[in-house]
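Hi V.,

Quick status before I head out on leave. The structure for the redesign project is tokenized and pasted below; the design run finished overnight.
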């Protein structure tokens, strides 16, 4: 894993990886930086600059070996390192994320869901069971969970975060429309879907 990559570079590398996975499925052996740039509508020089971080040399007039470049990105971004997660909030978004099978490609494994609705307890989605939220501290220890994905309604967000952090979880992927109050040692990734959509409609080139 390469430490210190900016969020923009990481985002572009994951997009490159998506393209490479598609090329592998199609049996295409080589790809050029202009091809990648064209698909993503970005500058070719940016693609070459990003790939330099991977120490993956292309071949003149041929480009990059698709399989090798794919492996280089997976190594650089730590896809092989397993990251165990759970979803707090078994609603529509929580279920949708639990059904998303491609997380496993990136070493991201969702093991369970939690909710406080008695009608949802013991349901299963994509092989993942829904537990009562009160079971979180116990199961965090047993399942060795690392990351919380927060998809609860706004009114339950802060109290759920308090339970998550007191259970020893240090990483939270927040899908709620809330700015959360957490201890200083907690790392939060706020997934501002509305903000990104508005940004895209105002200036697509900045997304």
């Amino acid at each position: 894993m390469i430490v210190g990559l900016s969020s923009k570079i990481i985002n572009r590398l994951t997009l490159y990886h998506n393209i490479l996975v598609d090329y592998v499925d199609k049996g295409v052996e080589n790809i050029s930086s202009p091809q990648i740039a064209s698909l993503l509508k970005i500058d070719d020089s940016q693609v070459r600059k990003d790939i330099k971080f991977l120490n993956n040399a292309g071949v003149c007039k041929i480009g990059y070996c698709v399989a090798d470049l794919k492996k280089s990105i997976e190594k650089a971004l730590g896809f092989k390192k397993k990251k165990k997660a759970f979803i707090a909030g078994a609603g529509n978004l929580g279920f949708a994320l639990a059904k998303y099978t491609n997380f496993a490609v990136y070493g991201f494994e969702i093991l369970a869901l939690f909710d406080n609705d008695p009608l949802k307890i013991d349901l299963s989605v994509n092989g993942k069971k829904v537990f009562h939220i009160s079971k979180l501290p116990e199961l965090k220890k047993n399942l060795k969970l690392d990351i919380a994905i927060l998809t609860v309604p706004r009114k339950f967000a802060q109290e759920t975060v308090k339970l998550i952090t007191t259970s020893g979880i240090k990483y939270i992927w927040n899908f709620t429309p809330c700015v959360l109050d957490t201890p200083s040692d907690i790392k939060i990734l706020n997934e501002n879907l509305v903000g990104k959509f508005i940004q895209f409609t105002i200036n697509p080139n900045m997304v």
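Above is the designed sequence. The chain has two domains: 7-76, 83-195.

G. will cover questions while I'm gone.

Best,
W.
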